[in-house]
Description:
2 copies of one chain form a homodimer. The first copy, chain A, is α+β, with helices and mostly antiparallel strands. Chain A has 3 domains: 5-415, Glycosyltransferase (Alpha/alpha barrel), CATH 1.50.10; 417-516, Immunoglobulin-like, CATH 2.60.40; 522-633, no CATH class. Chain A has helices at 17-40, 71-88, 92-108, 117-122, 136-154, 158-173, 190-201, 204-216, 226-234, 265-282, 285-301, 333-349, 353-369, 400-410; strands at residues 5-6, 12-14, 385-386, 417-420, 423-426, 432-438, 441-449, 456-463, 470-475, 484-487, 490-492, 496-497, 500-505, 511-516, 522-526, 536-541, 544-549, 560-561, 568-573, 580-590, 600-601, 607-616, 628-629, 632-633. In chain A, the strands form 3 sheets. In chain A, strands 3, 15, 16, 17, 18, 19, 20, 22, 23 and 24 form a 10-stranded antiparallel β-sheet that branches. Chain A has a 7-stranded antiparallel β-sheet with strand order 2-6-7-8-14-10-11, with no helix packed on it. In chain A, strands 1-4-5-9-13-12 form a 6-stranded mixed β-sheet, covered by helices on one side. In chain A, helix 12 packs parallel to helix 14 (400-410). Chain A is globular. Chains A and B meet through helix 11, strand 15 and strand 21 of A and helix 11, strand 15 and strand 21 of B. Strand 21 of chain A pairs antiparallel with strand 15 (521-526) of chain B. Chains A, B: This is Glycoside hydrolase family 127 protein.
Amino acid sequence: xxxxxxxxxxxxxxxxxxxxxxxxxxxxxxxxxxxxxxxxxxxxxxxxxxxxxxxxxxxxxxxxxxxxxxxxxxxxxxxxxxxxxxxxxxxxxxxxxxxxxxxxxxxxxxxxxxxxxxxxxxxxxxxxxxxxxxxxxxxxxxxxxxxxxxxxxxxxxxxxxxxxxxxxxxxxxxxxxxxxxxxxxxxxxxxxxxxxxxxxxxxxxxxxxxxxxxxxxxxxxxxxxxxxxxxxxxxxxxxxxxxxxxxxxxxxxxxxxxxxxxxxxxxxxxxxxxxxxxxxxxxxxxxxxxxxxxxxxxxxxxxxxxxxxxxxxxxxxxxxxxxxxxxxxxxxxxxxxxxxxxxxxxxxxxxxxxxxxxxxxxxxxxxxxxxxxxxxxxxxxxxxxxxxxxxxxxxxxxxxxxxxxxxxxxxxxxxxxxxxxxxxxxxxxxxxxxxxxxxxxxxxxxxxxxxxxxxxxxxxxxxxxxxxxxxxxxxxxxxxxxxxxxxxxxxxxxxxxxxxxxxxxxxxxxxxxxxxxxxxxxxxxxxxxxxxxxxxxxxxxxxxxxxxxxxxxxxxxxxxxxxxxxxxxxxxxxxxxxxxxxxxxxxxxxxxxxxxxxxxxxxxxxxxxxxxxxxxxxxxxxxxxxxxxxxxxx
Amino acid sequence: xxxxxxxxxxxxxxxxxxxxxxxxxxxxxxxxxxxxxxxxxxxxxxxxxxxxxxxxxxxxxxxxxxxxxxxxxxxxxxxxxxxxxxxxxxxxxxxxxxxxxxxxxxxxxxxxxxxxxxxxxxxxxxxxxxxxxxxxxxxxxxxxxxxxxxxxxxxxxxxxxxxxxxxxxxxxxxxxxxxxxxxxxxxxxxxxxxxxxxxxxxxxxxxxxxxxxxxxxxxxxxxxxxxxxxxxxxxxxxxxxxxxxxxxxxxxxxxxxxxxxxxxxxxxxxxxxxxxxxxxxxxxxxxxxxxxxxxxxxxxxxxxxxxxxxxxxxxxxxxxxxxxxxxxxxxxxxxxxxxxxxxxxxxxxxxxxxxxxxxxxxxxxxxxxxxxxxxxxxxxxxxxxxxxxxxxxxxxxxxxxxxxxxxxxxxxxxxxxxxxxxxxxxxxxxxxxxxxxxxxxxxxxxxxxxxxxxxxxxxxxxxxxxxxxxxxxxxxxxxxxxxxxxxxxxxxxxxxxxxxxxxxxxxxxxxxxxxxxxxxxxxxxxxxxxxxxxxxxxxxxxxxxxxxxxxxxxxxxxxxxxxxxxxxxxxxxxxxxxxxxxxxxxxxxxxxxxxxxxxxxxxxxxxxxxxxxxxxxxxxxxxxxxxxxxxxxx
Lengths: 634, 634
């Protein structure tokens, strides 16, 4: 079923300024400061099992809940991000750190291959007793993703082999065979990691294990729900079921029957990512249809304009259609990072620009907002409206988003291209160079642009001798109206096929395609049932959603109104926030000077003329506490 | 300092239809169904101490937290509400139930007078070890208020005597004397209850104890903060300080230094109520000034248009200026009930119609919304915007609001009048009859109206022989523009003095004053810094704030817009929801038919003409799940 394959991060070189700067920052600031934080917070030390020693000091939240049970995943994600970074530039110190982590994990691993540092240290007798809440399989998945990434980046397989032993142990433990437990993870993640392991090693048993986990999920056909079996075995009281519903972990019904996105957003989207992987691997129409229904549900009713997902803090997840509050938006960084993963898989299943549009939206906006300009501060939840009290942190009680955004940025090169037998698809722009196998040969592609600030894009092609004719498919984003294109200086009609301009020919060395995607500043409106956005507009230019921050605006951002007939202009400011395009426009702002003492009165407040300056959403909150709004009254 | 006194609930007869119906409902439905719930949920049984028996089954929330430590207060509040009701109509069954509760409390009481059923049953060795969190003094206060109310309503003092013994024990335990603990309640309440006990008995020691609790609160002058002393004695870990701040209990600084309302809203307003009581008792300018500063703060920056207080679920309380979200509004019923208490005290300190305006606002809107039309369903939190998922419950995990709203409604008669030596002030209208001591004599007052539906009010006066000249002060609500008045049919000029029309003369039997308060339907706007209400209007008529409920409106309420030039009309509908006045107007509503699949798009949605029907906020959610909005886009 899969016609297209992604092109691995290690095969694409980022040359354009936007992502080059972000990659430099990740390698120079994010990866080393994260390592320091992992060290400082005892997370690296927790890999060393000392059953006789007193427990490490661990953070707890106000409900006396610790995140130590997730620490293995933090290590795995750091290894993964660092490994992607090594493709961008080698770094001996980072490699030595990964080797040291490998040593620790090798020592920690139990003789039977089991490798969860919390359980090995704290309660070895309780392995696999609470898949629902305690993240053993999730941790295993993240360590595995780290191992695969390190192997891909360096060819070193020591960590990979440790993780393969662990996966073999897991494959023995879980399954439908005699003596096996019919369990599956409460927090999905290992499924997609196993598909990566299968791709890296070619060993089908890992694909089979991923398939088992996805197929068994929510199964109550002739068996009791696995999390209920577990719960009874543990003797839990009802209060110990924190979220109280299997929707939280998307195990309320078999995955093929699911058509509404529910529960914890990150869990959900990791699951859907694995479902799309397996749909491709097995040509599984049932999984593909479920993915399509879930995709439609989430993008048509449950997505922030910034590509954020999961509005509610309560379940870190989904609530109901059109429920997208701005000031209390959860929109976890991890969830939109996960959306990039899922969208990339959907795009491989089915080359439709809609998937790439959402991939780009989630990447450039909600995800990228998660990482500060200095590369060492983060957002966990991504508000779309703030009175100034929401600001970035250098570390978090639950640091999952930290390494999720760095692994995304460090691997961004992997999302630019797709290939099929006789087709090369360009999904993203921004300056990226690669050599791809196509049409019995190879083609060197060099895409040059100052995207996302500018929509003028040039692609130089250099097929090697003997490469047959192939289709170059250039994504025309849905926001790009009146796009124009030229091949070797000659205008070609921009007629798109499901979001892509497709040009089939025998390409020659020296061929150049020029694409122009106009990027006017535009107003966006939300569906009339998005209560929070009624009467408001958001600003967009190209792939970027904008916001107004207090520091750039003379009037309080909460009082600003942008009348419907105001012209918007945009300009690139090289010296502002590292070089960004701002949007400006004339506006009105309510005045409070004559308001008086009452909080409410019958007369409206008078308005004064003002103007607004909007900056890209992803760059907000890099200048200290700063009130901000994405949605502006019209 | 206090010039005015309230007129006790037991001295005023409610004759007008609005409150008569609510009082009937409370006596016929609320009081008996609450008793049944107290029985069903083991709350009455918990008064019987059986140290050897297994603990009662008690409800816990998802953080494994029980409310049983508050149960004494629920019993106290039920006794209090029922006692007020007995003034409206005697009821032998209710009296027998209170006697039975009295028997149980008498048996439960420890030889030294201590009487907290949780501690007596569960952990008698831990008395008074956690005033910060465990509500011992709060429970004592509510039981005491119940005892005072029962004594006032019936003259029976058995319960009162039990509580006086308990108060004597508390007075021995706490104070600045040698061997005493310098403690005070984490949840204020007992302070105002002790003032009531002082008024009922004349025993100054109870006033002294209230004064001590208020004065000692937040004291760190030469002593350690009491809750820190306690905490160290308990050996708590830092995580056990659930809210993590003394602002939560208004003990972050001495009360006289407080000028911002902070923390848990109900605790705060109960404290301010006691402060106003003590300001009057002691002629204490420091306390009065603090009350005035806090009043100004809360009413000018932190009050919902419905008279709700405390926007946040997290601390059940205050956040910051102008932070008044609608869909997530907490606005606990208890907090606005408490506001009625506080406002009544402020009004006695200082006859300013502003206090009565807020009293009326909190009473008729946020408070009254807490009790269903059938008298047996409740709101704890009072949203100002709902997608239909917020509905009333018959009982609550934490049933505090249940009995708070019933005790308010049952005692509403006590808020109508104030008296001074030569003045009678009428604060509220709605049909109430009383005989008051004034100017060396007495006057019978009969106020007749169909308020709040109609602003035509008639007051018949019948002074007894020998009553001197006095001032009749009629409140002219701030919302009433162009009020007119007549005395014995002759127009008098409506010139107000701080919100009251004051008429001084020698009144004669047969004198009648007619007052006409026009009640047009009006739009209200919020201060420009109330982010949640920007660009929106609320509807008000007289003392009532309105809302639009889905069942009465053809278009989805979230899509409705009320253009600024739309005329609003109002009409009384005798057969609708028991007889209410509705507001109607022409409106516009966004249409989604052509919206397409995307959640966001550049073109605005077209609008269609529609009309709206608004109902009083207090009556919403009496017809099943029903989307609702108070604030409507303009």
